[in-house]
Specification:
This protein has 8 helices and 5 strands. The protein has 219 residues and is of the alpha/beta class.
Length: 219
């Protein structure tokens, strides 16, 4: 299964007050393992960044002034997330901002059915506990010392590890199958396979004899 961990940074909290996206980060996962495919960009929001937002992510108006506009990266972004589940912490915030950007340039919005919100999973799993990304990193002993500011790719990296723990997949999923799977180029895939080895008739008979002897000894 292909998924994308996604995070955004913005000029402020509320779309209704005209706030815009200044950074998008995405990390692709296959069976919850990073594939090394990422999408990342800083954006010129075409408005001032609020002081509160600068305290969160550190991106100033000057830094963002020469960056691309959302309309210039939208095709690459949509291609990267196409037909993939989006893993987002507090998805309502990020999706509202992404859909606002899409609406501003007349593009179809992202369907919320394609989104998994790790905040909802954490809220259900740990009711009454702190479920911020930092709190979950602490709970699962994930090193978040690089998170001096909220930056999209670092947050995606941390969330990918949190997500595995939230879904109780502490180890990568293995693809167990009864038969080897062959690629279109006739090479064997590197996924783990389980081969089912059945005992021979002689082995079955020997096992019956062994069990009878064991039972006699114990009577």
């Amino acid at each position: 299964m292909i998924e994308v961990v996604l995070d955004t940074e913005t000029t402020g909290l509320s779309v209704s007050k005209g706030h815009r996206i200044v950074e998008i980060g995405c990390i692709e996962l296959k069976d919850q393992i990073p594939t090394n495919k990422t999408f990342h960009c800083y954006l010129n929001p075409q408005r001032k960044v609020s002081e509160d937002a600068i305290k969160v992510h550190g991106y100033t108006d000057e830094f963002l002034s020469d960056k691309k506009k959302f309309s210039e990266i939208v095709d690459d972004f949509l291609q990267f997330i196409k037909n993939k589940k989006l893993i987002i912490h507090n998805a309502e915030f990020d999706i509202s901002h992404i859909n606002n950007e899409l609406k501003l340039i007349g593009r179809p919005i992202i369907n919320k059915d394609s989104v998994i919100d790790t905040l909802d999973i954490a809220r259900e799993k740990y009711p009454g506990s702190s479920i911020s990304l930092d709190a979950l990193c602490k709970r699962f002993r994930i090193d978040n010392s690089r998170r001096k500011f909220h930056t999209a790719l670092i947050d995606c990296e941390l969330l990918s590890k949190v997500y595995i723990n939230l879904t109780d997949q502490k180890e990568p999923k293995l693809n167990f199958q009864a038969e080897e799977i062959i690629n279109t180029n006739n090479s064997i895939k590197t996924d783990y396979c389980k081969k089912i080895v059945l005992p021979s008739q002689d082995e079955l008979e020997n096992h019956k004899i062994f069990m009878k002897k064991s039972l006699k000894k114990n009577i």
